[in-house]
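Reviewers of the previous submission asked for a worked example of the structure-prediction workflow described in the proposal, so we include one complete record here. The input consisted solely of the amino acid sequence. No template or homolog information was supplied to the procedure at any stage.
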Amino acid sequence: MHLYKGRVPPDRLLKKRFQNLPVHEICHNESNHPPEVVLQNLKKAINTGTSSSGEQQDIFGMTPLHIYTLSLSQDLGIYELLLDSYPESVVTKDIYGKIPLFYALWGNKPSSVVELLVKKQKTLFPQYSIHWASMIETMVGTCFVAERANETLKSIIYMIHTRQIAYNQSMYWRGILTKWAIQYRKVSDENKAAYVDIIKHVMTYSIMSRSWPRYKESWKQELVLDIDDMNISIHRQIANDIWNFYSKLDYYEMLSRYKEPTHLLELAVWKSSIDSSHLAMNGDSAKDRANCRVECGSDIIIANVIPFLFSEKRVARWKVPE
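From that input alone, the workflow returned the following structure tokens.
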């Protein structure tokens, strides 16, 4: 699978992986038969006295559902049969701590498959907590195998999208990416570029996936430029850049939430600039009023007053521990 190093059972056990596990074996050998034949064989195995074997886990801790999510062919009928016959398998972890949903996302399986797995988990086991950060961290490790960086990025984006849409949850990317940055020093030289590329792409996605007011398009462009300008020479600098990037992002989102008071404060500062200028005595013009608005310093005042007024602390520049 190219997912994990070590923890692979010895050959003598691999040869007996599916001993007394007929349902597992049918799912593993699915590529040898068309989906309708696989479905028929599964029904036959499940309806016989060996049906309970499908509830067991093989030497990798995998259920038939795990195995089928790793298969090349994907058939909803087979998924529905496995889920109806062995519902607990949707939240069963293998020896690597992964549930079937992880492998479906990692393999970029059809959205209909992911939606079915999510629906079953939320319906049957609503209290189950999915460890998204651990799943994504595992995916990042695959980018160094067979130059899989592009596929890894697709899988991560797929997972982020699924979490946001299906669970209405966002990721704490500041902490996750900072941890990745600290680990950057352990990455081999030939893999550093791919590692940083994934970090930057995830940061870019976290910007593009948000709703930005049309009048604040410049904020988005500024953040994108910040990503392009990141210093990738040392891990400490990457971590600091990530932390400061998300501090700025949080700040801009706060300004968006307080759009009305921000505008009122800007108008007040602009008015004060006009009153204190020669325009108050000598009349004004559209051009002079515009100059006052540009030079009134509202950007500096707003940046410091709004957080104070609404008791929201701006995150100070963060330093990575030695």
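The radius of gyration is 27 Å. We consider this example representative of the routine output the project will generate in years two and three.
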